[in-house]
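Researcher:
Attend to token order:
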Amino acid sequence: MEDLNALADEHLTTARSSPHGRSAHRLLHEEPLRQTVIALTSGSALEAHNAPAAASVQVLRGRVRLTAASGDVELGAAELHPIPQERHGLLALEDAVVLLTTVNE
């Protein structure tokens, strides 16, 4: 069993020392389900990319903006939001850690 708070602390520390301002750890990879903890420093981003079959993002720490053509959504700690079925990105509005859950076909 993984401790999400400990992983958030660890990967936020790693992201802060990374030249790209991010760090990730795959928690679960049991096809088709995947869960990944992603830490981003303020201003860091995951550039626009294609959506998997189904996905959600849950903010564990900080604030992020989920960007998509259908509209941007700002999320804070403890908020969960589905990822739209279109190209999307993620921008850290402050140091943040999210839990990304995806289902791939």
Q: What stands out?
A: The chain has a mean pLDDT of 95. Helices lie at 4-17. Strands lie at 22-30, 33-40, 45-49, 54-61, 63-68, 73-76, 80-82, 88-92, 96-103.
